[in-house]
Amino acid sequence: MKASNEHHERIAKMTFASVYPHYLNKVESKGRTKDELIEVIEWLTGFDEQKIQAFILEKVTFETFFQQAQINPNASLIKGVICGYRIEEIENTLTKQVRYLDKLVDELAKGKKMEKILRSA
């Protein structure tokens, strides 16, 4: 499935604050914690909880969020399909990074062990 430029632009302009509550609801409804969600986001981006909260308050876009991130070197190990797109085939860097985050949240909600989610085992 090939994403359009409009799709990439829509993702870039979405605010992290608008999506974060959905991530939190998804993981908590499956018995995971906010701390685990923060750990996953921090692993991918390098942002601690304080920085994540600042981004939420500032209503930064995903574009700004990921421009400031230090993407984990092991992020390229995140593979599979999320939202109908195979992550390894996404060419747009920002869209790929957002889908990395979506996939990690999905894995957390599905009950995967943290070592597997963080690609350390």
Automatic annotation (TrEMBL):
InterPro entries: SP1917_dom_sf (IPR023204), UCP033199 (IPR014580). This is DUF2200 domain-containing protein. Pfam families: DUF2200. It comes from Arcicella rigui.
